[in-house]
Amino acid sequence: MHRILIVEDEPEIREMLRFILEPEGFHIGEADNAQDARRLLSRQIYDLILMDWMLPGRSGLELTRELKRKTPVNSPPVIMLTAKADESDKILGLDSGADDYITKPFSPREMLARIKAVIRRSGGDDFEAPVEFAGLGIDPAHHTACIDDTPLHLSPAEYRLLYFFMAHPNRAYARRQILDHVWGDEVCVDERTVDVHIRRLRKLLTPSGHHQFIQTVRGVGYRFTPSPLNH
Ligand code: CA
After folding, report:
1. For residue 176, how far is its CA from the centre of ligand 1 (angstroms)?
2. Residue 116 Cα, ligand 1 centroid: separation in angstroms?
3. DSSP designation for 96
């Protein structure tokens, strides 16, 4: 499940993007200005931002610069959307830290291809493909996890937590972010729930040594750091 934040002040374009992206299985967040975008980004993890250049108030270009400067660790990749086809503007957009650039009007197919390419590039997050680190494997298409072909018996929450980590390796996440992503924003659960599940997951992974992949990041939260196992 990938979440895309659309930051665009024209309702028709937001609606069109939603129309293209939702059938592809993307979850969509929408903001029509920079302030709302920042608020949503503080509450939810997004895998990509589609950022309109010209927004009322703070521009999409300025917001992109700010995000890349202030949150370099977990800032999602940005695709700039703009009517400006000018080459110098394109360079300015990429200089701001945007990962790609799409000029309006765009074709739905090109848009989808670019989005998938940027998400893939941004963190080994591949679509429904099995992921494996040192014998610890997860198969999102079948909702199964295993260690060296031996099935791991996980609760649904433990499975989602492990999948989240394996799909986003080497990045530190706050408990709140993990909670929002794994438990969903509609559920009101305590941040300690994350610690409880991490403890259970570590326990399950201890016999094989994979528990060492789940690292506590002091003052932040947790990070999944796969490495060769030392037995
Ligand atoms: Ca606009």
Report:
1. 31
2. 23
3. T
Residues 170-201 have pLDDT tens digits of: 889 999 888 877 876 555 778 888 999 999 99
CATH ID of 129-224, from 3.20.20.60, 1.10.10.10, 3.40.50.1760, 3.30.300.30: 1.10.10.10
Which residues line ion ligand 1, judged by CB < 5 Å? Answer: 9, 52, 54
Give me the sheet containing 27-31, strands edge to edge.
Answer: 27-31, 3-7, 48-52, 78-82, 100-103
Calculate how far, in angstroms, residue 173's C-alpha sits from the geometric centre of ligand 1: 31
- Ligand 1 centroid–CA 2 distance in Å is 24
pTM exceeds 0.70 for this model = no
- pLDDT, one tens digit per residue, over 83-92 is 766 667 777 7
Matching CATH number, 3-121, of 3.40.50.720, 3.90.1440.10, 3.40.50.2300, 3.30.830.10: 3.40.50.2300
